[in-house]
Write a structure and sequence with these properties.
The longest helix has 26 residues. About 35% of the residues lie in helices and about 25% in strands. It contains 12 helices and 19 strands. Helix 1 packs parallel to helix 5, helix 2 packs across helix 9 and helix 9 runs antiparallel to helix 10. By secondary structure, the chain is an alpha/beta fold.
Amino acid sequence: MAQPRVAVAGAGVGGLTTALALAARGVRCTVFERSARLAADGFGIQLPPNATRVLLGLGLGPALDAVSLRPAAREVRRWSDGALLGRVPLGDAAVARYGAPYLALRRADLVRVLHDAAEPGTVRFGARCTAATPDGALRLADGSVHEADAVVGADGLHSVVRAALRRDEPRRTGYTAYRAVLPITDPIAGAVPVVTVWLGPGRHVVAYPVPGGLNLVAVTAGRLEGAIDDWHGPVRDLVRAAGPATGHALFAGPALPVWHRGRLAVLGDAAHAMPPFLAEGAAQAIEDAAALADAGPGSPDGLARYEARRRPRAERVAAASAAGGIEHHLPDGARQRRRDERIAARGLPEQDWLFTCCH
């Protein structure tokens, strides 16, 4: 029986994981990537157990261990004095509780691990997708058209495949994320061995170790300059040590009425772009990829099964992430105190349902 022909738009985390998950089931695909090559650098990314469980199942454990760290814990602290609000053990505790590790690494290293695990020739670089149709046609900028039994849009916020399902634009959340990586030779970088989140009015700061450095993210509703001048001294020191940080507006995707039509389907940010307040964006794309491969793209009902399986979970995560954008940034007052008391009493309540589910 002939194997289905699958075309994937986008060689990011979701697209490459799709290729690997399909290959594990004996299905080859072609991934079309607009960039000429893999990115050589980049900022950090957190991979929780619900994501690493999938990747370990694809045989990527040793390759990931070579480019990642396992933070010992995740701590939530107060903006003004650094007071500890809650601490969740990670490291060996995460493996024991969830059956998979919590990893911190650089996004470029993750993408390279995924790419290197794929069959040679799986990815076509410099192949920009310009249109897709429900009958399974994918058009490239060079004028060529590629026919497939399933076309998967893993092409991000401005997805060409999504546009064939619904023409809309991602919406701004009103926040900007400023990112930097401090070299590990900086003594300040070595002082943060865990994932630390400082919550404050209208902004928050995250720091966690990655191989060779400390990844720093400051999220504010405006400019970073002057935004944390009155924060706890160690947080100010981290931001100052980072120097000029790269700012990116944060977006979320409008809800899609359907994730598939005909031979088309979307995953990751193309299906459910969410702000990074739960650090689950890449993890949800990885879950999508595994579920899509399990559902059998190219079979009569495969894409419908994929959407039915994944949509409730992804929408719940997206809603929780959006709520985190409010809870992270509460002004000091009664509501903020109740939030802090909840964290102190129960830890981070989203963790178990996030980390135990796979896809």
